[in-house]
Each structure stands twice: as structure tokens, then as C-alpha cells.
Amino acid sequence: MDIQKFVDTFFSPACIVSVQKKADGGYGDIRLAAGNKKYIEMIDMRINNKEFYVSEYAGDTFVPNSLYSKYFPKNRSFEDVCYKAAIQKIPVHTYGHVDNVDIWFDIYAVPLELEDEDVCYCAYTVTPSKNADIIFNTANTVQTSNDVLKTCIKLHKANNLKDAMENVISEIRAICKAECCTVLLLNDAEATYSILATDFKTNSKLKRVTEFEGFYDIATSWISMIGNENDCIIIQDKADMDYYSRINNPWYLTLVEAGVESVVLFPLRQGLEILGFIWATNFDTDDTMRIKETLELTTFFVSSHIARYKVIKHLKHMSYTDALTELPNRFACTDHIADLISRRKKFTAVSIDLNHFKSINDSLGLEAGNQVLIEISERWKALSGDETTAMQNFITRINGDEFMLVICDYNSDEELKDIIEKYADALSEPLTVDGCDLYITASFGYAEYPTDAQTADSLISHADAAMNEIKKANSSDHILGFTSDILRNEHILEVENKIRAALENNTIYFNLQPQYDMDHKLRGFEALARMKDTDGTPISPGEFIPIAEKVGLIDKVDSMVFQKATLFFSSLIKKTGLDLTLSINASVRHIMKNGFVEEICDLIKNSGLSTDQLEIEITESILIDSAEKALQCINELKSIGVKFAIDDFGTGYSSLSYLNKIPVNLLKIDKSFIDRINSNESSNQYVKAMISMGHIMGLDVISEGVEKSEQVEVLRSIGCDFIQGFIWGRPMSAEDAEKLVSDIANNTDFSH
Questions:
Q1: What's the angle, vertex CA 657, arms to CA 652 and CA 658, rounded to 5?
Q2: What is the pLDDT of residues 490-541, one digit of tens each?
């Protein structure tokens, strides 16, 4: 492998790291074997900027295959990441923060199947951002960040910093799996320190910091060890202890006397000023990476809180405010409702949905649709802020064109309906967008606590049901209160009966949507379930498939499509002799059924289809629901040659850890990302990153929902392998698919 050519394919700053593997399973030298242009520019910037550490041997520019410590301070966290990726072959996704320039780095380290005697390799990418939100939007860090948020958000709600920290420090220690966790503040003016909060495991024999005289000098000695780049200190074994005994022997002696075997320590900063430190002692060294991430997040929050709550206030604003309209969002709404219920206060939740809003997006574009949402929100904000009425109104945007209004302190049903009517009347005046006058209406459904529901979930559900009922009626009435009759959803029952009839009469059928490579060469087809009413009227799959899932019939629908599609496809392959792939969709419910493996094996046997011509599309949620059983099924089928694809990649729990677990062949990028690929640079780069990561993992990548030639060109330029979408082929009948394949076979050039 030409590692320089390989690393040059990365968009983000990236390097190839070599790690020397020792006979005892440990590691030796870690070198930067090669770097792409952006990574080399980053190192050259360090060399020429005195704010950053480089060794005296760094020279004037980056030299390939140099020890990393020529350009960066010794960093146990970096070494652990590279060791895991290069030697243990474990993909790693983490992040880091450089405090003196206030930059977060999103970090990937991916194993490379390349070894040179005792040297192993990994690809290491760093994506810098001045937006701290990156740590909350990274799929791999969601669990860690959520754990920390649950504890650190309490800091924001407390009036007293010390009381707040004492309330959460035990939770932080538990998350870190440590024997002790401590927050220490420095008072440089008086050359003293104070313990803001500390928590010890029950029966811990660790010696307290306060038992050591002159510990302020020990604490300040950490500053020079850490430097300006906000590196943490990690001690997790004897080799680390020996290292720190050489560079800071007074601290080392206190560690030994206190009974410390391992420690992770971070500085608390406000800009370049160090306010103090937080550390976890005697933690589970088998989980160093997660614990380091946990404390890095915790440090970020605690530092921010000490520095007048700056970031935590921003976090709360992000968490509870809709970015487009600046209205409170779904989380703020549910919290508000939960608070009212906890106080046993009578109130009404009103579910609001704009009528025919999709047509605005379709005809005028998403930007025009956004302007409509902003203008409507401004009108409703003015109503909710009206102080001339005693009634309290709380208007929120839930999602898309869905809103929720919470009304309190009304005295009668008439007053309640009057205030809802005011929100409806606020839409009576036209909205002017791009020179067009738009007349918007909305459907309002409401439910009252405690009359109509006793919990927040059921109250919102009942308000939604009333809104859907009045919207479905499509009449001049636009406001409806909840009644129990609404729960008897006749439409769902009607469609369920039609599905059962279609299954009984064997009238579920399939369409095939073609898939092509970037040269317009046919790869194969995806089989899509279709159904008609008894009078022959097609029923939208967007309507009957969710109901089939809801009532537990989706596996039967899948099976009928599987049988018919594989029989047809096998016959088609035998007629034409072409090497094509049939892709079928397996629902979570279906793949988790006992006998799924046997069903697929029988399907292959009865149809005569070759196993390598069958591809099963799954979603990441399969692993979330029941990872062990799902992986057993997948591995059994993979062992006989069946291929697997991850559908709707990027919309759920996508991460390197899941890709590493599932033995898939193909990633399918969801249409929602393709729709935005030409609208802004960040969307383009996000798709490019998914394609790059798929290729690094040895997977092919197909983009769904490609509808425009401009999208094709962008996808071709960023290395996408296959395309599926209206641009080159809509879902077609079996007859039309057969004609397409026959024409290709007769033309012999295998293209269309």
C-alpha cells in the first residue's frame, strides 16, 4: 500500500500512524508515517508558532516517519488511541479540546490491514471546529455526553456552586468507575487551594489530599506538566508511575503514600487561566478511553460553570430552543407539561399542524417554507406574550410544521376555545414570501389535564389524535377537542383488514428499483413491497407499511415479497446470464423471529437463486434492539454467502463501533442527506465523510433518492460507488424490469 497516496484521499487533516508492537503485547515507538496536506500544514503551523510545543529536533517542517513527540507533547491518550487502532485493530472515535486556541477536535483512528514485521498502522483523522456542539452531535459520544449532562446540568439549577458540585461529584465518580473523584480550586493570590467537592467509594483507604502539607505547591506543579494545550495527565500502570517519578518526584511520592494506582487529571480553565483541577483516582483502567472522555466533558462543563455559567447557559438554550424559530422546542414543551402535572395544575395541550405545508416546500422551496414558519412563529409569540389576559400561553415548535400550545388559568371551556381561535385567527392575514401572498391554515386538536389524560405522554398523544381527526375530516372546522371515540381509529382498522385480505389472497406484490454504479452499469434491484385495494386501487406503501408494522403483520408482508421477488429474479438471471444483485428489506420484527435463518435458506433453495446474488437490507436499530440474536442470524447467513446492507445509514445509531460489529458489504446513505448535498458545504462534507469512512471499513457505498444530475456529479466526484433514485430509475413492475435486463443483455455493454 502506498500510504502517502492513501492519506491524500482524506478531506480532513489526516495522518498514517505507525506503532511498534512489542512481544509482551505492549507498544514501543509511535511515529507519524505520512500526512496529507492539511495535516502537514497543521504541524508546520505548530513549528512556526511559539504558543505550541515542539521538540528541539522538530526542524523546519514535517518529516515523514518521525516520532510523534517531535511535534506534540507526550500524550498518553493519543498513544492509547493509536495502540488500540493499529495493534488491537479496534476502530476508535473520540474527541479532544485544545484550550489555548479553544478548538475541539473530532477524532477517528481506523485500523489498516498493513503490517511491516513488528510495525502496525492506523489512519488518524482530526476535524477541528470552534463549535463546542460537536461533542453533543457526535453519535459515538452520545452515551457519554448524556451521562455527563444528567449530572452537570444540575450545576445550572443550583444557586451555590459548592452545593451543586457536592450534589453531582458522586455521580461523576460512579460514571468514571473510580475510587475517588475530586475538584480542587486554586487561589493564586493567597497561594492556597480549596477542595470544592470530593467523593470517596465506601471503605476507601485512599489518603485525602488535605492530609498533605504544602499541597498547593504540588497542585501548581501540574501546570507546567500540562502546558497550554489542555492535555490531561493519565497514569494507568507502573510504566506511567515510573515516568512521573522522574519528571515530578514530589507528586509521585504523595501518590504512593496516598495509595494511588491510577489517575486521570484535567485542568479547569477560563481562557488561559487555570482555575483548578478535577481528577478521578483508581479508575477501571480497562475503560480508560471512556473515562477520559467523561472527565473531558465534565471539565468542560465545570470550567464553564465556574466561569459564570457561560457554556451551560448556551447548552440550555440549544437544548430547549428551536434553532429556526427561536420558540421553545419539544424538550422545553415536555418539561413544561411535566412541571404542570407535578403541581396538579389544570391545563390544556393543543396540538397544531399547518395544512398543506408540504406543497409550499415543494413549489417554492425549503427556504420559503422556513420563512413561513418564522413568520407564523412571530405572530404566535406575540399572542403568547400578551399580558392583557390572565391566561398563560406557552407556544412551542415540536418538529417541521408541528407546534404545541399549552394553555393555563382559563375559567371555562369558552375561554379555552377563544384563545385557541385567536391562534387560528392569527393566520387569517396572508404571509408574503418571495413576492407571493400565501394563505395558511392549521388544524388544532386539544386535550385537557387531568380530564382527558393523567400523564404527559398520553395527554400529548390524545391532543395529536384530535388534531389528526380534524385534519383528516378536511372540513371548514379546524378545532377539535379530544374524545375517547377518536382512539378507535377506523382508518387503521380498515387498512389492517385490507392487508390481511391481501395476505390471504396472495395479492401482495413487488416493484423493483434499479441500482447503478457511477458509470451507469446496472448493479441490481431493490425489491419494494406493493399492495392494491380490492378494487385495484394502489395503496401507498407509506400508508400500509407503517400500519403493517404497528399491527404485527410486516413479517408476513416481507415473506410474501421475498418469495415472489426471488423466484422472479432467479428466473431472470437464468434467462439473461447477467450477474446482478437482488436486495430485500428485512424489518427488525422479521429478523428477530425464530426461524428467520431457516426461512432465508429455504428461500434460496426454492428459488434457485445463488446466495451471493441475495442482499438483505437491515437498519442499525436491529443491534440496539437485540444485538446478540441479530448478529447470530447475520453471521449464519453471511457464512453461506448472503450479503448485507445497512439501510438509511446516518439517520439512526450509525457509528464505527456498529460497523465493526455488523459484517455488512454495503452502506446505503439516506435520501435526506442526498437532498441537501448541493444546498450547503457542510452537508456535502458530511456525505463525503460517510463515503470515506465506508471505504476505510472496506464497504461499498450507495446513495438513495438521487433525483438530480447535479447530485450525480457531486457523488461521482466524492467517490460514491452506486446510485439508486429517480434520476436513473423509478420503481418498476417485474415486466418492465425484465425488459430492462433483457435489453442490457442483448446490447452486451451492460449499461443503460
A1: 45
A2: 577 788 889 999 999 999 999 999 999 999 999 999 999 999 988 888 899 9
The pLDDT tens digits of the residues spanning 166-196 come to 878 888 888 888 999 999 988 887 889 989 8
Residue 338 phi, psi (nearest 5): -60, -40
pLDDT (average), residues 324-332: 91
CA separation (Å) from 571 to 608, 610, 748? 8, 11, 19
Half-sphere exposure of 549 (CA within 13 A, CB side): 10
Task: Tell me the three cell numbers of residue 189.
Answer: 493570590
User: In sequence order, what DSSP letters do the residues of 299-352 get, joined into one string?
Assistant: HHHHHHHHTTTHHHHHHHHHHHB-TTT-SB-HHHHHHHHHHHHHTT--EEEEEE
35 closest CA partner among 56, 59, 65: 65
Please tell me whether residue 732 adopts helix, strand or coil conformation: strand
CB atoms within 10 A of CB 436: 12
Cβ-contact 82, 19 below 8 angstroms:
yes
Q: What is the pTM of this model?
A: 0.41
Q: What is the pLDDT of residue 142?
A: 45
466 near 447, Cβ under 8 Å?
yes
Task: Check residue 311 and give its pLDDT.
Answer: 45
- Which of 204-218, 415-429, 671-685, 703-717 is predicted least confidently? 671-685
Contact 445, 350 (CB under 8 A): yes
Q: Higher pLDDT residue, 88 or 141?
A: 88
Helix or strand or coil: residue 405? strand
- Between 74 and 397, whose confidence is greater? 397
Q: Are 258 and 266 in contact (CB under 8 A)?
A: no
Q: Which long-range contacts (C-beta less than 8 Å, at least 24 apart) are formed by 39-45? A: 39/7, 39/13, 39/14, 39/15, 39/126, 41/13, 42/13, 42/126, 43/71
Q: What does the alpha-carbon distance between residue 239 and residue 285 come to, in Å, rounded to a whole number? A: 13
Nearest alpha carbon to residue 332 among 343, 318, 311, 345: 318
Q: In the chain, what is the greatest distance between 2 CA atoms, to the nearest angstrom?
A: 90
DSSP-derived secondary structure for 290-308:
HHHHHHHHHHHHHHHHHTT
Nearest to 294, CA basis, from 145, 151, 166: 145
Residues whose CB falls within 8 Å of the CB of residue 634, separated by 6 or more in sequence, listed in order? 618, 644, 662, 663
Mean pLDDT (whole number) for 611-626: 78
Contact 750, 522 (CB under 8 A): yes
Residue 130, burial from CB neighbour count under 10 angstroms (0-12, 13-18, 19+):
exposed
Give the pLDDT confidence of 484-494 residue by residue, as tens digits. Answer: 777 756 577 78
Helix count (H) and strand count (E) of the chain?
27, 27
The 8-class DSSP code of residue 88 comes to S
DSSP letters, 13-71, are: SEEEEEEEEPTTS-EEEEEEEEE-HHHHHHHHHHHT-TTS---TT--SS--TTEEGGGT
